[in-house]
Design a protein that fits this description.
The protein is an alpha+beta fold. It has four helices and eight strands.
């Protein structure tokens, strides 16, 4: 999965028999709070940015259906310790409905499809969450200028990971 904050787009990719990535479906993001930049603390209403994986599905979510994102990842925790930050927050989901305070809301019809696709995967499902589509143009100094010192490296890693997800 690839989630693009600025474009408000959620993409589902699958591997072909030849091992290449192919766009399966694209959905509009109906709600995602915050601005460009990573989630740094509980209550900042930011959608995290980075390379994560999905680590649970909830068929009884108050937002119809939901899929948990493994934020904070081990990398997030390590960077927070280095920065002296605590209370990183959590409970980040991709879900139905059209409201969000740090999650990615796709609406009920879209989350049904995404939920089933995630459930059918026979391996952990990665999700790349980026401030904008780095496939269109590489990260610049402006992208990370108002964030922590490690943000440039994270955006560079995201851009590199996204290179395979092109039609």
């Amino acid at each position: 999965f690839v989630a693009l904050k600025e474009e408000r787009r959620f993409e589902v990719w699958g591997r072909t028999d030849a091992g290449r990535w192919r766009l399966v479906r694209s959905y509009p993001v109906l709600a995602a709070s915050g601005i460009s930049g990573p989630k740094l603390q509980e209550g900042d209403r930011q959608v995290p940015e980075g390379i994560y994986r999905l680590d649970g599905r909830n068929p009884n979510s108050q937002f119809y259906l939901s899929i948990r994102v493994n934020y904070p990842s081990d990398e997030d925790k390590s960077l927070a310790r280095r920065d002296g930050r605590t209370r990183l927050g959590g409970d980040i989901f991709i879900h139905g409905s059209a409201v969000s305070i740090g999650c990615i809301a796709l609406g009920d019809t879209a989350i049904e499809e995404v939920f089933v696709m995630a459930a059918l995967s026979d391996r952990p499902v990665p999700i790349l969450i980026a401030p904008r589509d780095f496939r269109q143009s590489a990260p610049t100094a402006d992208d990370s200028s108002v964030g922590p010192l490690w943000l440039k490296a994270r955006y560079d890693a995201l851009a590199k990971a996204m290179t395979g997800f092109k039609e």
